[in-house]
């Protein structure tokens, strides 16, 4: 019997149930279900929340990544075969998006203390065909953006962000996920810190040309109905998901703060010497703990810990068990060695993290880990 689920989506949305029902009814009664009033309102609200000029709703997070990159290609800023530096430790969607539009992903090893792209390794991955960097704020922690931005500026590289796990993460000066580069991609998959009740995504940018291009490409390549200027796709944020996200957005900061409270308890109260805890940033707001990842000394110990917790009714996951360069889809793509990413995949374990976890559930997790 499960005592502490990894994530209970029903409980996660329960506090907003009345608002969600009202929003859903309003959309149904409006008679307008694609690219209407709610999509525009949510785009404007999320752009303002993040601190950028433009937001374009799309179908999902992978589409957001692909369309963000494709827009730069259509605008002549990137070209087929250009190399994009991406993290070796990430969800496969980041790499898939680069490949899907005809660009070449080049992997950069993660930093041991953050799991994010290591800025000190950028120079080793940089080459004559490198044209951009695509960072991923993995697990909800902002990358070392000052160092990465400096490298991008020094080498005249475009900078893109995958913010699928970092909604609301901010530096001490107020700059947040989605504000650092040419454009940023967000996912609103139901498990995210700001999650829809289906698939949804968004591209953020301060560049009007990028915003207009993403909007056209996601609408069959059309700026005017039945006039197709580009070879586009069908990827649009529907009214229902936009309305539901608009209802949940005002609660995002409070939800993130609760995640930080739970993370603080984990870091303070987990005392097992076999467990390596994540580093807490000097500026707490830089991490929104989409997931909370611990590490064990080796794969055997990690697997034993996972079984031990499961026997006590505590669900866990691994983010991610196979790094991109070892996936069958990329069996012949990458020739380098990535020992840091591989070691992480063998030793990491994600423990329950949710803003609706009770204090007793948090204590249950802590007690079980300390008992191992």
TrEMBL record:
Record's keyword annotation contains Transmembrane helix: no
Superkingdom of origin organism: Bacteria
Record bears the keyword Iron-sulfur: no
Chain positions found as N6-(pyridoxal phosphate)lysine: 192
Active site (UniProt): 192
GO molecular function, one term: pyridoxal phosphate binding
Keywords: Pyridoxal phosphate
Any GO BP: polysaccharide biosynthetic process
PANTHER family cross-referenced by the UniProt entry: 3-OXO-GLUCOSE-6-PHOSPHATE:GLUTAMATE AMINOTRANSFERASE, TRANSAMINASE
Family label: Belongs to the DegT/DnrJ/EryC1 family.
Protein name: dTDP-4-amino-4,6-dideoxygalactose transaminase
Species whose genome carries this gene: Fibrobacter succinogenes
């Amino acid at each position: 019997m499960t005592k502490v689920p990894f994530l209970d989506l029903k409980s996660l949305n329960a506090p907003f149930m009345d608002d969600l029902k009202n929003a859903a009814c309003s959309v149904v009664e409006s008679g307008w279900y694609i690219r209407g009033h709610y999509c525009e309102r949510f785009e404007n609200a999320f752009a303002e929340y993040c601190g950028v000029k433009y937001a374009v709703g799309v179908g999902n997070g992978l589409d957001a990544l692909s369309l963000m990159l494709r827009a730069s290609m259509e605008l002549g800023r990137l070209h087929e075969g250009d190399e994009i530096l991406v993290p070796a430790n990430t969800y496969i969607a980041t790499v898939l998006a680069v490949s899907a539009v005809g660009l070449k992903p080049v992997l950069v090893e993660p930093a041991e203390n953050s799991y994010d792209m290591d800025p000190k390794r950028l120079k080793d991955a940089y080459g004559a065909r490198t044209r951009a960097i695509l960072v991923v704020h993995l697990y909800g922690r902002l990358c070392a953006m000052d160092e990465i931005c400096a490298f991008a500026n020094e080498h005249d590289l475009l900078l893109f962000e995958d913010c699928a796990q970092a909604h609301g993460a901010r530096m001490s000066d107020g700059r947040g996920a989605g504000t650092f580069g040419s454009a940023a991609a967000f996912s609103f998959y139901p498990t995210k810190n700001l999650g829809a009740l289906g698939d949804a995504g968004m591209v953020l940018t301060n560049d009007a040309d990028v915003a207009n291009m993403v909007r056209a490409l996601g609408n069959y390549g059309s700026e005017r109905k039945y006039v197709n200027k580009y070879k586009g796709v069908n990827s649009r944020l529907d009214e229902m998901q936009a309305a539901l996200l608009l209802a949940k957005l005002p609660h995002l900061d409070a939800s993130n703060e609760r995640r930080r409270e739970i993370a603080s308890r984990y870091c303070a109260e987990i005392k097992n010497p076999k467990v390596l805890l994540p580093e807490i940033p000097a500026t707490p707001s830089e991490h929104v703990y989409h997931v909370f990842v611990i590490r064990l000394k080796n794969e055997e110990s990690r697997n034993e810990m996972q079984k031990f917790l499961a026997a006590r009714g505590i669900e866990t996951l691994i983010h991610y068990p196979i790094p991109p360069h070892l996936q069958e889809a990329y069996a012949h793509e990458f020739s380098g060695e990535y020992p840091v990413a591989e070691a992480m995949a063998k030793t990491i374990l994600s423990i329950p993290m949710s803003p609706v976890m009770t204090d007793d559930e948090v204590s249950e997790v802590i007690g079980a880990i300390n008992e191992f």
